[in-house]
Amino acid sequence: MRIDLHCHSTASDGTDSPAELVKAAAAAGLDTIAITDHDTFAGWAEAAAAGVRHGLTVVPGAEISCERDSRSIHLLGYLVDPQDGALVAALARARDARATRLEAMVERLAAGGIPIAYAAVLAHVPPGATPGRPHIADALVAAGRVATRDEAFARWLHDDSPYYVRHYAPDPALAVQLVRQAGGVAVLAHPFARARGTVGLGDDLVEELAAAGLTGIEADHPDHDPPAANRARVLGRRLGLLVTGSSDYHGTGKTARLGQHTTEPEVLEQLHTLAAAARVRRAPSADSG
Known about the structure:
10 helices; DNA polymerase, domain 1; 16% strand; TIM Barrel; 2 domains; alpha/beta
């Protein structure tokens, strides 16, 4: 069984619709994928319906944008209740902040001699999608400034760029708590990636999140070289975390392939078991009145 637990659609910054994502995953020989769009559950229903048509299991999830000490940290929340009020409110606040941030980044780019119209960026955001830096990248590609999304990030859009603008994002420990309270499980995404101008997280932060209830850590990922992937596996074993592997597929414009890295079936089974236990814990007792 081939399982890819980190994939994006046009509900955020992917280039395939949720249905197209599922179809492509089936064509790539995958049996299970997770749809993990940034700060949104918008693609779940369409992906689930497509999964039935293509005989592929879809795990509902979201990639939650977090921040600690001006560092961007990403958390994968799986199998949460999409109606949980606290989690829904936190994700809505993050989405609203993303839109404001994009406009400010466009202004900085223009001031730095890289003119791009904000309307041109919005033209690349599908209706209802979560806006993000990849949509600025798409506008830069369309304007002929760069050839690919990856080039746009490498040159101008990475976290350490003078054009980067921060936006609201919850602290990762809070995000872990929100996911658990929503009946889900939390996995730390690509913690030791060094792509796009970022530097990997320290072990101390991973240890803190594990103590806060983190369930797993993503080891095999396109932005992890072999030493980084091994570091994540070793740290995961030491902290009792489940270890996942994923493609972080976004469609065209990025080099990651569906199924480029995968998760073991027994790990997915454990994620389901732990999420079921979390849902039992959050359910009101029969005697609660």
